[in-house]
């Protein structure tokens, strides 16, 4: 099997060439689009830009001026987003809707759940769901805590001489990466490579073709893993599906499911771990509360999920029929983009939703989506966050930022929001 590292080199070359293409709607030229189109993917530090709230208050369903033939609607209101995401019969998520648009070809279909409609989506989700029940996930609990402690040990070693330690690369990235390795049953030595591929697919700053290229490389990797699991099924998710479903699921479907688990469970959780740590570091009151009490952990995790909503925009939906959402007429064939970060800050949910407040009665947030496409790995993500946040603040009770907040570098244009690095001093 050729190594994933060598395939990344080839992918990088294709990415460069893709950015010079003259045909199609290449998102690498996003700087030429109106700011209103880019606005749902931008933030001011931890907060969605103010324009997103203004649009939500004025028009929770608004039309975007994009250079394609179909109408494109941005949905920012909480009730309106739930209405769209909850209507699987009225809206399609199938990848074929993108073919010929945004530089996508049929061969670039990532498979998995995100870009599938029923009945395909229903059948594939039934394969995954048993592996994400609390009973099945319970077998991962000891390993999750081990991984967290291992990373804390590594941080302590790196910062023993007073040197700054980067939470992103020492803590936030390795934890979900190693957990996903454990879940899927894939080699740990490939961790660094698929970390890069996972991040690349969500980074629209490099263009749509670069994102699709990263998806192709990841799928190629998982095809090789699936072949090995067919020959010798392990105890991970892929091996269990092979044992229990055998020939009823194809290698391509298994690779797509594995790729979806990787991307849905790695990059999002890594971003949550890093950004959540930043929230705690910026407010000693919250840091101390999480340090001192186990009873507040769940509330803090749920409020951090709502407040940060790192998956900023849901997968696009395509109207199957004429219908009305939030008093606005949507025509068959129109494209609908749901702003999850905007919806989770909607004032209809309660007072001061722009603020982080774990003492509030946490609303039913949309950080994991809604409807049939709600993240299948939501409980796994919660397990990791519940283990990691309190362990971090308890191991390093005097931890503080090693950089000015205004100097921190956040992602400029990404579906999954994140921070590039988060340097901290571990001791006074």
UniProtKB/TrEMBL annotation:
One example of the protein's molecular function in GO is: iron ion binding
Q: What's in the keyword line of the UniProt record?
A: Heme, Iron, Metal-binding, Monooxygenase, Oxidoreductase
Q: Which InterPro entries match?
A: Cyt_P450 (IPR001128), Cyt_P450_B (IPR002397), Cyt_P450_CS (IPR017972), Cyt_P450_sf (IPR036396)
A Pfam family this protein belongs to? p450
Tree of life domain: Bacteria
In the UniProt record, does the keyword Cytoplasm occur?
Answer: no
Provide the family line. Belongs to the cytochrome P450 family.
Specify the protein name. Cytochrome P450
The organism of origin for this protein: Streptomyces tubercidicus
